[in-house]
Amino acid sequence: MRPNIDTHDYEVKMKAIQRFFEDGDKVKVTLKFRGREMAHLELGMKLLHQVRDDTQTIAKVEAEPKLEGRQMMMVLAPR
C-alpha cells in the first residue's frame, strides 16, 4: 500500500485481507513511502491504525507498526 491510497483501492485490499484471515493465514501490511512522503509518516501510521481498527473483530495485532527504512510494516494474525 501507499500512504495516500484511494478509498476503493483500500476496500479491495481489505477484502483480500479478510480472505487471508478466513484461510487462517497471517497478514503483513506494508506501506511504501517515496520521495516527500517520508516527511508525512503520520499519514502512514494513521492508515495502519485504520487497518487495525477495521480488522479488530477478526484479527489481532501480532507486530505493532514500525518504520524500517522507507517502509512501515505491521503484522496481523487471525483470532
Key descriptive features of the protein:
3 strands; 2 helices; alpha+beta; 38% helix; 79 residues
Topology, pairings included?
Elements: H1 7-22, E1 27-32, H2 41-54, E2 59-68, E3 71-78
Antiparallel strand pairs: 1-3, 2-3
Please tell me about this protein's structure.
- This protein has about 80 residues and is α+β, with helices and mostly antiparallel strands.
- Helices cover about 40% and strands about 30% of the residues.
- The protein has helices at about 5-20, 40-55; strands at about 25-30, 60-70, 70-79.
- The chain has a 3-stranded antiparallel sheet.
- A hairpin with a 2-residue loop joins strand 2 and strand 3 (about 70-79).
- The longest helix is centred in the first third of the chain and has 16 residues, at about 5-20.
- The protein is globular and about 35 Å long.
- The two termini are about 25 Å apart.
